[in-house]
Specification:
Blueprint: H1 4-29, E1 32-39, E2 42-48, E3 59-68, E4 71-72, E5 93-94, E6 100-101, E7 105-113, E8 117-119, E9 131-139, E10 142-143, E11 147-148, H2 154-157, E12 164-170, E13 173-179, E14 202-209, E15 214-221, E16 225-228, E17 235-245, E18 250-251, E19 258-262
Antiparallel strand pairs: 1-2, 2-8, 3-6, 3-7, 3-9, 4-5, 9-10, 9-11, 12-13, 13-16, 14-15, 14-17, 17-18, 17-19
Length: 263
C-alpha cells in the first residue's frame, strides 16, 4: 500500500500538472497578431491562429467596444481636435458620454466564425473615437483567453487610396480630373461622401516624358482639375497622381499610370 504522504504528494502533483496543461492549452489556442486594418474607413479586424491550431478545426468569437471621448456636432465636419481635450467646453464639440469604457459587445456575424477576419466597419463609424477589438478561439471544447487589439482610432489610422484620375486632351494640353476615394456605404444617403469631408487633402500630379524617361511634378494643391500645358507634339506622356495629408504627414500610394500620345 502506498504511504499516505506519498499518495497526497502524487495527488497534488497530478492536479498541478493538469492545471498547467490546461493553461498551456488555453495559451496555445490564443489568437495571435490581432489588429485592425483600415482603408478609406473600411475597418477590418484581422488575426492569426494560435500556435496549436491548424486548418479549420477552430472557431472564433469577436467583441468590440468604444472608448468615449469627445465628438463633433456633425458627422460630416472635419475633426477639430476634439480628442485632444479633456472636455468639450468650446464651440463645435459636444460630449457623447462620460469618458470611460463601454461594455464589450458581441459581433453577431463573427460569433463562431471560422474566418480570420471580421468586418467592423459599421461598429466603428464614429471615426474620431477610439475603439478596441478582441478575439478568442475555441477548439475541441477548449477556449482560449481573449486577445485584444491596440487602441484603434479610424481618423488617425485609416489609409486612403490614391485618387481616381481621368485625362482628356484639349488642344495639345492635358486636362486631369481627380476624385478622392468615397467612404463606405453607411455614410451615403443622397450622395456619395468623400474623404475630403474629413481631411485637408493636397493632390500631387506627376508627368513622365517617355522619350526622355524623366518625371516631373507639375502640380500640388487642393484643386481637383489640373491642366498640363507646354507639351511636346508627337510625344508620349504618362501621368500619375497621389494624395497628401498635411496634418498627418502621410501620402497615399500612387495611382495607376495613364498614358497618352500628343498629336
Amino acid at each position: 500500500m502506498m504511504p499516505k504522504h506519498c499518495f497526497l504528494g502524487f495527488l497534488i502533483s497530478f492536479v498541478l500538472t493538469g492545471v498547467a496543461g490546461t493553461q498551456s492549452t488555453h495559451e496555445s489556442l490564443k489568437p495571435q497578431r490581432v489588429q485592425f486594418q483600415s482603408r478609406n474607413f473600411h475597418n477590418i479586424l484581422q488575426w492569426q491562429p494560435g500556435r496549436a491550431l491548424t486548418g479549420n478545426s477552430s472557431v472564433y468569437f469577436v467583441q468590440y467596444k468604444i472608448m468615449f471621448s469627445c465628438s463633433m456636432k456633425s458627422s460630416h465636419q472635419k475633426p477639430s481636435g476634439c480628442w485632444q481635450h479633456t472636455s468639450c467646453n468650446f464651440p463645435g464639440c459636444r460630449t457623447l458620454a462620460k469618458y470611460g469604457q463601454r461594455q464589450w459587445k458581441n459581433k453577431e456575424d463573427c460569433w463562431g466564425t471560422q474566418e480570420l477576419f471580421c468586418d467592423l466597419t459599421s461598429e466603428t463609424s464614429d471615426i474620431q473615437e477610439p475603439y478596441y477589438g478582441r478575439v478568442r478561439a475555441a477548439s475541441a471544447g477548449s477556449y482560449s483567453e481573449w486577445s485584444m487589439t491596440p487602441r484603434f482610432t479610424p481618423w488617425w489610422e485609416t489609409k486612403i487610396d490614391p485618387p481616381v484620375m481621368n485625362i482628356t486632351q484639349v488642344n495639345g494640353s492635358l486636362l486631369v480630373i481627380l476624385h478622392a476615394p468615397n467612404l463606405p456605404y453607411r455614410y451615403q444617403k443622397e450622395k456619395n461622401v468623400s474623404i475630403e469631408d474629413y481631411y485637408e487633402l493636397l493632390y500631387r500630379v506627376f508627368i513622365i516624358n517617355n522619350s526622355l524617361e524623366k518625371e516631373q511634378k507639375v502640380y500640388e494643391g487642393a484643386h481637383r482639375v489640373v491642366e498640363i500645358e507646354a507639351l511636346t507634339p508627337h510625344s508620349s506622356y504618362c501621368v500619375v497622381a497621389e494624395i497628401y495629408q498635411p496634418m498627418l504627414d502621410r501620402r497615399s500610394q500612387r495611382s495607376e499610370e495613364r498614358c497618352v500620345e500628343i498629336p
